[in-house]
Amino acid sequence: MQIPGYRIIRKINQGGMSTVYLAIQLSVGREVALKVMSPALNADPVFSERFQREANIVGQLSHPNIVSIYDIGRYKNLNYIAMDYLPGGSVHDKMATGLSTSEILRIVREMALALDLAHEKGYIHRDIKPENILFRENNSAVLSDFGVAKTVSSASQMTNAGMVVGTPHYMSPEQARGKAIDGRSDIYSLGVVFYEMLTGTVPYKAEEAVAIAIKHLTAPIPKLPPQYSLYQKLLNTLLAKDPDDRFQRGREIVNAIDELDATLSGSRPRYMSNTEPSAMHIASLFKALVLTSYAALSAQAKAAVTEIARWRWSPKRSFYRRPDSTVTEIRTNPDSGENDRTTVVSTRIQKAAYFQAGNHRTGFSIARVLSIVLVVGSLWFTFSVALIRFHLPGENHYPIALRNAAIFSAALLNQRDLTAPIIIEASEPEPLAQMTSTPQPVLRTPEPEVAETEINESEALPTDTLPDTDTPEAEVAEPAPEPIPEPPPAPRFALTVNPEPVSARVRILNIKEKYQPGIALLPDRYLVEVTAEGYHTYKEWVRLGTQDRSLDVSLRKVVVPGTLFKNELANGDQGPEMVIIPAGTFTMGDKGSSVTMPERRVTIDQPFAVSRFEITFADFDKFLSANNLGQPDDERWGRGSRPVINVSWEQARAYTQWLSESTGKKYRLPTEAEWEFLARANSEGDYWWTGDAKKRANCRNGCQSDYAGLFTTKTAPVGSYNPNAFGVHDTAGNVAEWVEDCFQNHYLSAPRDASAVKLAQCDLRSVRGGSMKDSAKDITVHHREGRDASKAYNDVGFRVVVELY
């Protein structure tokens, strides 16, 4: 397929409506995901309109958490859209490997921001689900697939009245009814995804879509497991059946998550900081105090009313009068076999304190009054200090008398001189062009007026007329009042980033100051970036609490696929030669055999390195020598550079563990998914090559091998045949290879990621690639069989993987 302006690399994914390819946009040289609508759907105007509308909608939504559109066009009979290439997989993929709660909250927060913009622009996504939340290389979440999105006020006939569009497990109740929906429907769907990320399953399950819809309408909101109980309130608001009870927009979700995050991290109290100039939140603190005081006063008042209702004041006004005894009549059940009789229980309250003299009543009242005065006084002095030190909301409209009284109270706390009057007056009005807000009150203390008089020496008063300052009657000028002290600066704490390599550049992106080791900062969240040439960039929000923090950052080297290397063993020798395999996505399995079905898409998230050749006798002998073990039989085919044979799966595993201990790196056997990915080398046929297998591999029939035929069969030295596109030799034929997985004769329960199949009872291990004893049809990239893990075979060897991260 050819589309002008693009070079198509490979197919990424395929659905019923379109196929997505990885391509290079030649004009700018960037990787893009090229979404091409199926030509068979061109005749259907509904699909064509949806395809066009998706591009139009996304083109209007510029947001870091929404997929970007670069181009839209039509070439011959192909409609296409060029958009962001998102290599990080989907939420569905990441759930298979496990997500931490912090990652889950971050994903929900980023999706809420994306939805907030989409809803603000008037668009409803209508298909929020894990498969439609993808990830960039920096692990940020991106909302994709607006193919069934609609405008809130759209008059489009894309869906008929009562028609339901969406995925049943993620539909909101109103969406399941086929009723009119708005952005709150997407918020409900996001709540379902939130629940699934936490628990690994959707909240409502059933055999049929209708039954699932009914559960969305009627079933109660599920309870989270105890370890996630802190998030139940957030989930309840997301999954409220009535849209009015949910979050009304994405920004509210963000605020709720930030509040929850701050609570969990224990970051309160918050101080004014570079990133949030108004982060003192004195108004919030004041509001909390008001509410607390109100609750205390209400409790006191209720208690007092209760006591008054329970007791009546006696006519003598010196004693409380005891109320009459309470009589309770209890009748037994006649069916109990007893006679129908009445039991009378007399209950008398005999608290001696209530029968004492009236002075005890007075003490009780004084305690009540003192507690109320204490609460009100605390509230008043808090208000006074807040008014002096901060700008409270609407303070310019407070009565002058109230403000003067508050300032007087604050002065008491600060032990100021109270003899001089304190006056609040409005500042001088600024010119209209400069006036941006109501003039703020200015605190000043009036100074005594002194007349300015020029006195000549000739007119000086005689000394006998000057007042005698030593006499008691002499007046002494009072000292000027002390100014109100400035509030102490908020405490700062040191943040030190220790990068590896040490030459890496460190920046804090959300402050103006240049980073220096041990930089003093206020408690807050800071976006730290560490970069170095030849390494992946580290960028993460870091929370600085109320103590110094040292952050160790080890940058990951940028690996180049195809690079060859050897790791050094403990004795100074070299391990097997390794080649780096890139990350990628491929279709695993084959429809032609029951043991390779069903096919499934698998994503290799990270590059890894695999031994370029099958492990040879020379490689394996190093392990045997280090552990004083005997050598396996070579069947007289030769040792040295020939692949090691007659080793069991358990012995192959022991070799990888020895490599790990000797090199300090993590070696292991490849998983089935990794093995098939590296064997395919981005090809889509039965072999990594095109055409027949002649002179391509070492097999008995169909390969024309010099080492195996009708009468002779033996292994070939490794590297005797050309490598595939990844630089890996002998993935087909020569010897079959042990892999990590337990063998099952199907892929029904295989993980969706590249991890190995693990079973409680695992007697058979998978063997891949075929051997010199097989015919060409049995050395395909998808060929597999099971062998006894404890036995050794003369046609089975192995290769190893080392993890790069």
Automatic annotation (TrEMBL):
Pfam families cross-referenced by the UniProt entry: FGE-sulfatase, Pkinase
Coiled-coil annotated spans: none
Gene3D superfamilies for the chain: paralog of FGE (formylglycine-generating enzyme), Phosphorylase Kinase, domain 1, Transferase(Phosphotransferase) domain 1
Region spans: Disordered: 429-486
E.C. number: 2.7.11.1
Compositional bias annotation for Low complexity: 459-469
Source taxon at top rank: Bacteria
Protein name: non-specific serine/threonine protein kinase
